[in-house]
Predict the structure.
Amino acid sequence: VLTTRTTTTTNDLSVAVIVKLEPDFSEGNVSYNADGTLNRAETKSILGPHSAIASYAAFYAKVKYGARIAVGTMGPPIAESALQQAQLLCDADELHLYSDRIFAGADTLATAEVLKAGISKVEGDGKVDIVFSGHRASDGETGQTGAQTAWKLGYTFLGNVIDYNIDLQSRFVRAKRLISLQGFYDIIEEVEAPLPVFISIDPSYKALFNTVSQRLAFEKYQKEAKSRAENYKQFLKVLNTQQLGIDPKLVGLPGSPTIVYKVERIPKAKASRKAEVIDGANHGQLATVAANLYEVLGGMVIK
Amino acid sequence: MMMMMSKYQHLYVVIEHEDGVPVPVSLEMLGEARRLMDGFNRKYSSDEKVVAVVLGHNVRKLCEELIFYGADAVIYADSPELRYRRNLIDTKVISQIARSREVAAKFSDTLEFVKPRYMFFGADSIGRHLSSTVLAELESGLASDINKLVIEDLEIKHEHKTKGQAIKYEKTLEMYRPDFSGFLWTTILCLDNRNPSNEREYHPQGCSIIPGVFAPIEPDKSRRGQIVDYVPEFDEHDLRVRILDRKIVKSAVDFDSHKAVVSFGKGVKDSPEQNIKMLAQLAKEIEAEVGISLPISKKPFPVSEGINSTYMIPDRVIGTSGRKVTPLVYIAVGISGAMQHIAGMKESGFIVAINPDENSPIKDECDMFIKGRMEDVIPLLLEELRKQRPTIEVKK
């Protein structure tokens, strides 16, 4: 039986972005231990690069559709700096920090539980049309949290999105996705889905503003974003377990199915090749390298 | 023999394919599943199965092939709605299958069956998200980007899982994942909560597997197994998510049609802009595609926008977080040789490294190790390459 659903007549669009404070891997800010592992204590933190791209994608919805934007993150108090940086990028109207000591040590499923509860606290009874997330965090790198949050919210999940547009009348999104499979060609897929949806943004996403009015709106909101981010605390709500109405057994360590059992240095593999050592300043030896390269490559094709 | 009954049995492998052609990681997962479950059944005197799960349309031939590649049984959901991947309906169909005792009963004696014991997905743009949503639906744990798997009985003492008591967890899947640095290996376990104040069962133990890591088994056409047809049910509302168009595109970065690859890593840092330009010249000289190590995709140095958007992009990453390449010639410049990178290039034909540090691990993975700073070495090497260039033969 086909169930008919009442469609809203409003043209409003409410979007949310979930972001993460991550180690800053840029030269001068990142610090490595002697064994090549990350020195977390000495490494600065910033809004993760993929979170930044998700924020741009949300800003596109503001410029193009006048969307209202909320940004949320789970983390310790210091994570509010990620919210401020995201606000500067997307001119957010509302910032959420989900913070509670019991959230610590959460795996992706327990994190998704918090983020789901957080989205439901967005102004307007949590009726968010699109939630954006980045491709993955640059420290955890699982790429799971977005999709799991989507599933818990009951939103259609669209991953690897490189472009999207909304039809506010029909309440549908049209998106392009980039699918790459190892050992196969890439596929660009165009998909449509009724709102609400959860979009995880591909690293190659770039917003394009084509019309003059869009460019004007872009400048206006960018200016607004700057002044808002300077006073970001006015927009900030900090929510704990109780305020989020979460079952404490479903979050943090108690709510995580997985644990980290051990961390070890990856053992050095047995030498798989025996290298001939070449003196990089010796012309004769480098001539041998060149000869070897040409030999292996065979006849180079002249085009 | 009387089998031990268990609520959780078998290893389900979610297969990826394009119109019936398996994506390589699917066969690799089946190979590893076969090896693991052969060891498991010997060790525990049991008869648990490797079960391939296929969603598609008119791909029965693929199902037969999967048995040759190690599956004991294939569960096949055939529908025109399942020709291409859609996360929403796929997640629901796979979860229905995973929970179906009736389906499991077709290939095993499973009176108690509730859910699979283990579940594998490919760690690519399809499987990464599908594994996340399926395990969220099945309310269990998932580890991503795995490159080593072991099944063990482990004694666990954990503040939350066991309330500090030592408890033996049998048949636990140890899931190893390399971290972002490529130097650390983290073992993830998915464990039931046996803490009396918060008891909860977490099955299946799920993971996504890095493509190109495990070897498929030699296909054996004499292998027999059961293909179980599953008739999926769809919610009409879910079918409103529609694929409008699919275009096959060549990746902007094309490793496959080049005979050579020149890759660079953090060693460019002293003057990134000039060094990358110089590298690009070297690549041009031998008609190579340019690759990078994972840290470069995190844009660690300020460079011009052109260099940034051309070279420091995820598409160029070689290694377990990117592409696996096998060119005739591979030149690693300023790359130390983290395992995560090595895994993506070690099968290249002839490997040259340019590096000032003779102790860096890349030395054990190359045929010629040019000791020196790239700033000094590349101009000289270019000079020698150009000197020898005239000996080119023209091929038709």
Summary: The two ends of chain A are 62 Å apart (CA to CA). The longest helix of chain A spans residues 212-230.
